Amino acid sequence: MKKISLTGIKPTGTPHLGNYLGAIRPALELTKNYDTVYFIADYHALTTVHDGAEMHDNIHKVAATWLAMGLDPEKGLFYKQSDIPEIFELSWALSCFTPKGFMNRAHAYKAKVEANRAENLDLDTNINMGLYCYPCLMDADILMFGADVVPVGKDQKQHVEFARDVAIRFNKQMNKDVFTIPEPLIQESTDVIPGLDGRKMSKSYDNTIEIFLESKALKKKLGKIVTNSQGIEEPKDPDSCNVFKLFKLFATEDECADLAAKYRAGGMGWGYAKGELQRVLERTFGDAREKYFDLMAHPERIDEILCAGAEKARPVAKARLEQVREVIGVGKIV
Ligand code: ADP
Ligand code: TRP
After folding, report:
1. Rounded to two decimals, what is the model's pTM?
2. Which of 202, 210, 211, 242 to mutate to test the pocket of ligand 1 (most atoms within 8 A of CB)?
3. Ligand 2 mean position to 233 CA, how many Å?
4. Backbone angles phi, psi at 108, to 5 degrees
5. Regarding the domain with residue range 212-292, which homologous superfamily does it belong to in the CATH classification?
6. For 137-151, what is each residue's pLDDT tens digit?
7. Rounded distance, CA 236 to CA 217, Å?
8. Which CATH class is domain 4-193+299-328?
């Protein structure tokens, strides 16, 4: 039996290079050796997206990105979280095995509390219960499908560790190995992708480079990458440069050595380096971009794929939930 790789992406906006390199690419690489469970975490997105039309559109964007990048929906499971109601029942059950302190320590929640403190606001300002309980829902996502590994960016490590801890507690307290103990899988080279301003690329910082920008829009975006103010003639350091950091993730070794030498020699302007970055991005995403826009022009095809995916995933979820219900003593689903 193959091991299971599982991950989810929230439909909170247009997928960017951080999502691709931190989650989508590593997840797709695992399809060779693992059974895969990849999904769209729409109820996680609801903690921040409170506009129905926007949510709907974002779901299509994330699904189309997975499919355009090569996810084969026939292999493994591919669905949207809200189509599997069993996950929400499991989330409640798991929350009863989760110390409240875990939630207090969760990074996303803590960051909001600290931001409120810095602004002298009530510490609970703009924090809904969904955000607070976010890790419990993620535990259910992961444990429901028996994930062995969860490919994610570094920011999600703590959440996967909570799931691990809760699985161990449940199995121990109920004296039965119901849940597989999952592990986060984080690639060193792509753990934190820098955004336009050098901070972690994130929709929340408004510093993202979207995966499927058209050439003109991409050029404009890359123009915004912050560089230092060195003139063309000056020799430059590739390793501390945001443009080079991104280039390295898409270029061959020879291309990297070549561009690094141009940096060090002097006589190269930032425009040239950004042009090189654009070239490797277009090479990487050119074909997928066509597929993405084709899918986005036919959202009914995406819905059909997600619907078929949910039909395949639900029996798996039902079986696990039956097992949990039996162990905790509430009986079978009637
Ligand atoms: P955002 O921060 O833009 O809201 P998400 O939280 O939706 O992104 O992230 C979805 C997935 O992409 C997660 O697995 C996350 O770890 C990964 N990811 C997001 N941004 C980055 C980044 N800058 N570097 C590496 N991985 C990232
Ligand atoms: N919390 C993840 C994020 O912000 C998305 C997510 C939801 C997820 N459920 C998951 C990731 C389960 C991995 C496994 O990116």
Report:
1. 0.93
2. 202
3. 45
4. -65, -45
5. Tyrosyl-Transfer RNA Synthetase (1.10.240.10)
6. 999 999 999 999 999
7. 27
8. alpha beta
Any ligand 2 atom below 6 A from CB of 84: no
Domain boundaries, the chain: 4-193+299-328, 212-292
- Arithmetic mean of pLDDT, 311-328: 98
What is the position in ligand 1's atom list of the atom closest to the CA of 200?
Answer: 23
Residues flanking ligand 1, CB < 6 Å: 9-10, 12, 18-19, 22-23, 152-153, 155-156, 190, 192-193, 200-204
CA of 183 from ligand 2 middle (Å) equals: 13
pLDDT, tens digit (0-9, with 9 covering 90-100), for 191-250: 789 999 999 999 889 999 999 999 999 999 999 999 999 999 999 999 999 999 999 999
Contact indicator for 193, 20 with CB cutoff of 8 Å:
no
Proportion of the chain above pLDDT 70, given as a percent: 100
Average pLDDT over residues 115-137: 97
Position 28 scores a pLDDT of: 96
The β-bridge partners of 151 are 185
Does the beta carbon of 152 sit less than 6 angstroms from any atom of ligand 2?
A: yes
State the alpha helices, DSSP H only, in 145-204: 157-173
Nearest CA residue ID for atom 8, ligand 1 = 202
Q: At 26, give phi and psi (nearest 5°).
A: -60, -35
With a cut of 90, say whether residue 154 has pLDDT above it. no
- Alpha carbon distances (Å) from 183 to 69, 159, 298: 24, 11, 36
> Going along 108-240, which residue ranges are E strands?
149-151, 183-185
CA nearest 185: which of 156, 209, 214, 210?
156
- Tokens 């510490």, residue located: 123
95 or 153, which is more confident: 95
The better pLDDT of the pair 283, 188 is held by 283
- Mean pLDDT across 275-294: 97
- E strands present in the chain: 4-9, 35-40, 77-80, 149-151, 183-185
